[in-house]
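Technical note accompanying the year-one report. For the benefit of new consortium partners, we illustrate the data format agreed upon in the data management plan: each record pairs a sequence with a structure-token string. No post-processing was applied to the example shown here.
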Amino acid sequence: MIRFILTRLLQVLAVLAVMSFVIYALIGLMPGDPVDLMLTADPHLTAADVARLKALYGIDRPLGERYLAWAEAALSGDFGYSRLYSTRAIAALMPRLANTALLMGTSFVLALGLALPLGALAARRPGSLFDILANLMSFAGISVPAFWLALVLILIFAVGLGWLPAGGIATIGDGGITDRVWHLVLPVATLTLASSGTYLRYMRAGMIEALRQDYIRTARAKGAGEGRVLWAHALRNALIPVITVVALSFGSLFSGALITETMFAYPGMGKLIYDAILGNDFNLALAGLLFATLLVLLSNLAADIAYAAADPRIVYR
């Protein structure tokens, strides 16, 4: 297992290096650059000034040379300067990453805690009233757009009842934990309801398939209780497809839910990357996209490890 993990980590580094060049090239193909923006903002700049600034920052060099210079600096921890936030790109990225980790991590845990037990219990008696209600909840979570759900929650709990704040991360002048929690309730509820439907659907399907297997009949014939059959024998085998779906969604969660963050004016990773691309903040956009790529790669590695933990028959050599 250790050799497998080390091999996969080397593959992650190789893919990350290739993707860094691809992202750098795509961003380099975007129209305009910071010096061109300075020219449009300051009419006193001349063509000679623009040429001198481009030579100073290396923008006039070929793409390959610029990438190698950027990669050398990035390996030392320098991802450049953010023109939107007037600070280093990493310094602008880390607070947004912490906000996204709090928001997405909380919704991720709640969605799994809600969907997995409901899916397992619904699969115990397919066609029952509980199964019908679980299916209804699943289809609603899959079908309802996140922006519509966010608007409904804002209209009901913020505008109508006035119980919760409509957006933001904290009240101005109040940085307490309780205030942060109140501001998290609506965005966390939106993401939890929007993502739990998919997990519930896959969990139910996996459990129904697992409960039809011969080893389940053998366990029942040996006198195992229904709870032990459901949670000890069937659950681990039913988790394999769920782990795949969770791994695919994990990277996108922590790269930021742009729609939800925009609806609730939440300063997270998704909004940061979006604003950086629109504002031609190349260094910040590149750092954010690379970090999102790294999370996707690591989540797939974590899924492979979880496969072996859930099913002892899976062995990596």
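Partners are asked to follow this layout when depositing records. The beta strands are 81-82, 87-88.
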